[in-house]
Amino acid sequence: MSETTLKPIGAFSWNELMTTDVDAAKVFYGDLFGWGMQKCEAGDMDYSMATLGDQEIAGLMAIPKEAASMPPSWGAYVTVADVDALLLRVTKLGGKVAVPPHDIPDVGCFAVIQDPQGAMLSFISYKK
């Protein structure tokens, strides 16, 4: 885990592109920003890490089958202490759980919510 993901609770800590053509996105963003690209071990998922120098700065992946109708988009993650506890607060405040908690091996736990106005946001608690 890079130092960029070790942000304080409540801070944006990670950005991730879900797209229909990962290889084309890697070329585009690599050329646009000078990012390096490297494949990562992520179980059966094809996941790539964008790097700037020696810093991991973003992830790129294909849109999952269960979200096939969504357009390619960037998503942001906010660091939280406890995903489950925060999801209870989301629903009390009028939001919805879009993706229930999922563990990412060796990384942590994440979930995706929709706020009362419809905006989507991901939360993540990192393993120490």
From TrEMBL:
Organism from which the protein derives: Sulfuriferula multivorans
Residues of the VOC domain: 11-126
Source taxon at top rank: Bacteria
The protein's name: VOC family protein
Gene3D superfamilies given in the database record: 2,3-Dihydroxybiphenyl 1,2-Dioxygenase, domain 1
Pfam family, one: Glyoxalase
InterPro entries per UniProt: Anthracycline_SecMetBiosynth, Glyas_Bleomycin-R_OHBP_Dase, Glyas_Fos-R_dOase_dom, VOC_core
